[in-house]
Write the structure tokens for this entry.
Amino acid sequence: MTHKLVPEHRILKEEEKQEILKNLNVGVHQFPKILKNDAAIRDMEPKQGDIVEIKRKSRTTGEAKYYRVVVVE
């Protein structure tokens, strides 16, 4: 999606996913969820269990990264 109000979304590669899980010391089930058919990611063809990195603008840090796990509901 290219609208200026939609933050950048990308699906992490498997090695990036494992690194995030290790660095944060969490399991996939502990991440907030994002639906597979969410308008922001559906064109990326996500699979259940993928982790999506969302980059949002922040007044204090310039950019903040958020992570969501893809679910099918």
In short: The first strand starts at residue 8 and ends at 11.
